[in-house]
């Protein structure tokens, strides 16, 4: 079940969802485009297994944080285009601020010198 | 139910759609990726592989995507259920015992609940039936004795009350001769006010209902048939509308048929005629106090408010009577829901039975809980391993509860079948006059109840063992491969408590049954005050209108007396207008007596009056206390002779000679009698008292009147004391009647013993049912004791082996086992008797001359339990005594 690739990704729970929501906030997209977008934006630093996006999208759909509609992509494919909902926006804001706090905390612990200054 | 299946199917349909959508999405993604790789210069084959590599495990991802939508709890519950079924299949003996025990309990409960649902809970078959109210009167003492009103009173209510949409009335149930071509049949019917159907809110199955016109005397010669009678007598032919039938010698036109399922006003009513008013006759509408009232409340009016209004109206309406009425007459008007008044005192009986079967279910639960505890010992290692592998206690409890709920559900299905099968027999045990008997059937609430009971019992008996099993001492359990020498004290304690609880509950049920049995016995020992042996009784009825020709009825019945006297073997013959202990007998004889003056506003005393032929006293064996019996010469009416009972003589004229005292019967108007010695009746004799209204009720004032031309009745009951068998005597009677008039029906042929027995039907039915349930409780409880003792013996095999090896005598071993069982029974009995003593108050209303703390019952029941404990321990004790020490010590 666990393979080396997943370990390499080493994302904390909720991170993928947050990135999806952030991408969708900029513009609605279908799954493939989302993956491309996330990989580009992260300069390929994050080794996201492409497929893992889909369970995350299903979870977001269930929570009604995103909605989906079947449509036609730029490459003329029948795809499901995801769109962030109002609830998704709110969720994203909350997650982002809590993430930033956590990140700040971790950074302080990891760089004690900086904290003093 | 359909909305439920709709919702479920919708959920699953939407799921399917989602899943296929996801699969398609993944497929498209892979293709898009592949195409991109191809564009970047890979070969198609390479591109497919690379796309897959980048995507990851598509199947797993699809599955994870699905999981987002699933209910992990439900799905693991299903897994639990599958596992539980496997477990049960592996130990069929346990499963069978548990299911059967519980099924008995659930079955008994479901059966009794079916009665409760059908009789007490199901609405009556009228629209908005909860607004239908029975209106009855009680006197100042709150006795509901005088509940009947003249028709004018009901009409006055209808006109003046603002609380009711309409108020209607119906007369008593009367048996009439309905004459066809060849013979008459006796059929029950009743008269109702013409607005009855508006009040009930029903429509005829065929034809029409009464019109207001039918309430006018002379235009009332119409009849409505009950649905059942229409089907039975007229084969359900709609063409009978407009035809005429002769009812008690009067031709009436059939105008309609009641809707199916409506039995109104009485369960056995087969036809309805209108209550009519004689215009211009000021007395007519006030004279027969024979009608009961009911009404439909207006929306938003509470029964209490309506009752208050009717009570407020009372003084004003009382002035409508053409004579002065006692102020207290029906002063307290009661308004109660029609359903409640129909159910009447069947309610406490049903609730008592429900209580009893509830106990049985608890006993069954305790039994199964014990079985599960015993099983838990053998599953201790399984649970310990699960615990060691990380299953939480809650998870194990859930697994075990799922097991017990499944057992409960299986028992529920079997129990429902048992209830359905036994329902007919159960209904047969109910008294014949149980209300809504025809409605008794399995309706949907019964299924709901059975389902609820199954799940609840499953949780109930599963919880204790589950909690106990979920917190095992892991190390201990894993280390000790075999049972310890003495067994586990804590588990034994729980089991023993459960068994004691079972015995206690059994004792409770048995005690209730015992009290009822003792009460029934006391009742049957009551001397009714008249002889019942070798007497055949039957009703012989002329048309109700036969006596309009004066002397015709008297002539017929004297001829009947002569003819029946000649039947072979007949010793005595007598006639009476109303047989003692036949149901529904009111105090029908209001009178004024010499030396007891009375104001018109006071109620007149009421006695039980009976018209009798001179042979009556001899036939039923009444003793003459003073004076003389009635004779032939009294039949002319000239002597104005009556005979009263001891009770009446003593209360009216204590320490005086009652012979020669005057009594005056009052008609409906309660004007005090004048007691003119030249007109009033004269007491010529005093006879012994009888329990004429039932073995359980006290003595009333009784008056025996001769059958004169003035008071002749069309229908009399004949009593024949005979040396030959009842069937032969009845046949002779039928021949004799046919010789006089072949159209006169002879009905209700019963022996006097049967009449007396029938009068205790309520008590008997309750006693029989309680005894049955007591027996059930006992057997389930006994199985509980037996299995615990048997289990203890197998548990203590090594210990007993050691004891025997060390020189214990086998008799001591037997005693040791028996003593344990004995102590269980003792503890349980004490608890049960205590509970019985506390709850005895509830039984009081069903008991006749037996205290709820009846010493006899309270002694016999624990003795019975001890005996049972002895029996239950016997087999296991013998087995314990025959243990071979060598083998016992070697077994692991």
Write the layout of secondary structure elements.
The complex is a heterodimer of chains A (117) and B (892).
Chain A: H1 4-9, H2 15-26, E1 29-30, H3 31-41, H4 53-62, E2 66-72, E3 78-84, H5 86-110, H6 112-116
Antiparallel strand pairs in A: 1-3, 2-3
Helix pairs in contact in A: 2-5
Chain B: H1 2-39, H2 44-55, H3 58-67, H4 72-90, H5 92-121, E1 132-138, H6 151-160, E2 164-171, E3 174-179, E4 184-192, H7 196-200, E5 206-207, E6 222-225, H8 227-234, E7 244-247, E8 250-257, E9 271-274, H9 284-287, E10 291-297, H10 303-318, E11 332-337, H11 338-343, H12 346-378, H13 380-388, H14 393-429, H15 444-470, H16 474-479, H17 489-525, E12 535-541, H18 552-565, E13 570-576, E14 589-593, E15 606-612, H19 616-620, E16 624-627, E17 641-645, H20 646-652, E18 662-665, E19 681-687, E20 702-706, E21 715-722, H21 726-740, E22 746-751, H22 752-759, H23 761-795, H24 797-805, H25 810-843, H26 855-881, H27 885-890
Parallel strand pairs in B: 4-9, 6-8, 15-20, 17-19
Antiparallel strand pairs in B: 1-10, 1-11, 2-10, 3-4, 3-7, 5-8, 6-9, 7-8, 12-21, 12-22, 13-21, 14-15, 14-18, 16-19, 17-20, 18-19
Helix pairs in contact in B: 1-2, 1-3, 4-14, 5-12, 5-14, 5-15, 12-15, 12-17, 12-23, 14-15, 17-23, 17-25, 17-26, 18-21, 23-26, 25-26
Can you describe this structure?
The complex is a heterodimer of chains A (117) and B (892). Chain A is α+β, with helices and mostly antiparallel strands and 117 residues long. Chain A has helices at residues 4-9, 15-26, 31-41, 53-62, 86-110, 112-116, and strands spanning 29-30, 66-72, 78-84. Chain A contains 6 helices and 3 strands, in the order ααβααββαα. Chain A has a 3-stranded antiparallel sheet. The radius of gyration of chain A is 16 Å and the shape is globular. Helices cover 52% and strands 15% of the residues of chain B. Chain B is built from 27 helices and 22 strands. Chain A binds chain B through residues 1, 5, 30-32, 35, 49-52, 54-55, 57-59, 61-62, 73, 75, 77-80, and chain B through 18, 21-22, 24-26, 28-29, 31-33, 35, 54-58, 60-62, 64-69.
């Amino acid at each position: 079940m666990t393979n080396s690739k997943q370990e390499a990704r080493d994302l904390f729970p909720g991170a993928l969802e947050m990135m999806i929501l952030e991408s969708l906030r900029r513009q609605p997209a279908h799954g493939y485009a989302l993956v491309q977008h996330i990989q580009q934006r992260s300069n390929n630093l994050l080794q996201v297994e492409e497929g893992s996006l889909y369970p995350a999208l299903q979870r977001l759909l269930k929570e009604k944080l995103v909605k989906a509609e079947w449509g036609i992509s730029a490459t003329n494919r029948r795809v499901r285009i995801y769109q962030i909902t109002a609830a998704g926006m709110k969720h994203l804001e909350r997650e982002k601020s809590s993430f930033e706090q956590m990140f700040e905390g971790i950074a302080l612990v990891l760089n004690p010198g900086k904290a003093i200054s | 139910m359909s909305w439920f299946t709709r919702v479920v199917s919708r959920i699953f349909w939407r799921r399917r759609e989602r899943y296929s959508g996801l699969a398609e999405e993944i497929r498209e993604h892979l293709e898009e990726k592949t195409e991109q790789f191809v564009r970047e210069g890979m070969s198609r084959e390479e591109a497919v592989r690379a796309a897959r590599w980048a995507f990851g495990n598509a199947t797993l991802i699809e599955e994870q995507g699905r999981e987002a939508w699933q209910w992990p709890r439900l799905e693991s519950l299903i897994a639990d259920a599958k596992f539980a079924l496997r477990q049960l299949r592996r130990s069929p003996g346990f499963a069978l015992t548990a299911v059967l025990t519980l099924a008995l309990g659930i079955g008994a409960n479901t059966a009794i609940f079916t009665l409760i649902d059908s009789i007490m809970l199901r609405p009556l078959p009228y629209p908005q039936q909860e607004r239908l109210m029975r209106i009855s009167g009680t006197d100042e003492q709150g006795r509901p004795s005088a509940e009947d009103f003249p028709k004018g009173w009901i009409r006055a209510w209808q006109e003046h009350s603002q609380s009711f949409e309409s108020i209607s009335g119906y007369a008593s149930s009367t048996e009439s001769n309905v004459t066809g071509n060849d013979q008459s049949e006796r059929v029950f019917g009743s008269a109702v006010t013409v607005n009855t159907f508006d009040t009930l809110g029903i429509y005829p199955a065929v034809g029409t209902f009464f019109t207001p016109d039918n309430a006018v005397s002379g235009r009332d010669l119409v009849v409505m048939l009950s649905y059942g009678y229409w089907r039975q007598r007229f084969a359900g032919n709609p063409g009978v509308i407009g035809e005429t039938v002769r009812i008690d010698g009067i031709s009436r036109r059939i105008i309609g048929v009641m809707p199916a399922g409506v039995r109104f006003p009485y369960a056995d009513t087969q036809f309805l005629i209108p209550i009519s008013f004689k215009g211009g006759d000021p007395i007519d509408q006030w004279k027969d106090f024979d009608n009961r009232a009911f009404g439909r409340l207006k929306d938003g009016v509470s029964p209490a408010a309506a009752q208050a209004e009717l009570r407020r109206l009372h003084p004003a309406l009382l002035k409508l009577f053409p004579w002065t009425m006692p102020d207290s007459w029906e002063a307290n008007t009661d308004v109660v829901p029609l359903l409640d008044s129909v159910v009447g005192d069947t309610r406490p009986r049903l609730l008592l039975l429900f209580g009893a079967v509830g106990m049985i279910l608890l006993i069954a639960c305790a039994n199964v809980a014990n079985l599960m505890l015993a099983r838990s010992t053998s599953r201790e290692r399984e649970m310990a391993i699960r615990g060691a592998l990380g299953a939480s206690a809650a998870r194990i409890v859930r697994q075990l509860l799922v097991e017990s709920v499944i057992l409960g559900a299986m028992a529920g299905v079997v129990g429902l079948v048992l209830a359905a099968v036994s329902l007919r027999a159960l209904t047969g045990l109910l008294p014949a006059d149980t209300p809504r008997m025809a409605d008794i059937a399995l309706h949907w609430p019964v299924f709901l109840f059975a389902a609820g009971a199954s799940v609840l019992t499953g949780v109930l008996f599963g919880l204790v063992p589950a909690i106990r099993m979920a917190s095992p001492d892991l190390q201990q359990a894993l280390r000790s491969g075999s049972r310890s020498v003495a067994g586990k004290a804590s588990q034994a304690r729980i089991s023993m408590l459960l068994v004691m609880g079972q015995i206690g509950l059994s004792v409770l049920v048995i005690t209730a049954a015992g009290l009822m049995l003792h009460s029934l016995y006391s009742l049957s020992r009551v001397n009714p005050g008249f002889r019942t042996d070798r007497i055949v009784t039957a009703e012989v009825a002329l048309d109700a209108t036969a006596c309009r020709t004066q002397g015709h009825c008297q002539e017929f019945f004297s001829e009947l007396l002569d003819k029946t006297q000649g039947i072979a073997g007949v010793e005595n013959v007598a006639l009476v207008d109303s047989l003692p202990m036949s149901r529904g007998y009111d105090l029908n004889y209001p009178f004024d007596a010499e030396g007891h003056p009375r104001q018109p506003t006071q109620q007149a005393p009421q006695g039980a009056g009976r018209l009798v032929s001179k042979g009556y006293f001899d036939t039923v064996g009444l003793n003459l206390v003073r004076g003389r019996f009635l004779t032939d010469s009294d039949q002319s009416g000239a002597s104005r002779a009556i005979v009263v009972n001891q009770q009446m003589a003593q209360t009216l004229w204590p320490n005086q000679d009652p012979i020669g005292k005057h009594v005056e019967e009052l008609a409906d108007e309660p004007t005090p009698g004048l007691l003119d010695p030249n007109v009033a009746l004269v007491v010529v004799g005093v006879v012994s008292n009888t329990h004429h209204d039932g073995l359980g009720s006290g003595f009333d004032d009784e008056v025996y009147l001769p059958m004169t031309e003035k008071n002749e009745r069309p229908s009399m009951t004949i009593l024949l004391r005979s040396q030959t068998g009842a069937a032969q005597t009845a046949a002779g009677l039928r021949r004799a009647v046919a010789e006089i008039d072949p159209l006169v029906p002879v009905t209700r042929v019963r022996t006097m013993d049967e009449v007396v027995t029938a009068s205790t039907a309520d008590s008997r039915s309750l006693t029989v049912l309680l005894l049955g349930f007591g027996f059930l409780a006992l057997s389930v409880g006994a199985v509980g004791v037996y299995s615990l003792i048997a289990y203890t013996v197998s548990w203590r095999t090594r210990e007993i082996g050691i004891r025997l090896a060390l020189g214990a005598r086998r008799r001591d071993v037997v005693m040791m086992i028996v003593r344990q069982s004995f102590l269980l029974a003792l503890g349980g009995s004490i608890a049960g008797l205590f509970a019985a003593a506390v709850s005895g108050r509830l039984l009081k209303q069903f008991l006749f001359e037996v205290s709820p703390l009846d010493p006899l019952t309270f002694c016999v029941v624990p003795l019975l339990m001890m005996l049972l404990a002895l029996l239950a321990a016997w087999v296991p004790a013998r087995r314990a005594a025959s243990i071979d020490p060598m083998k016992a010590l070697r077994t692991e």
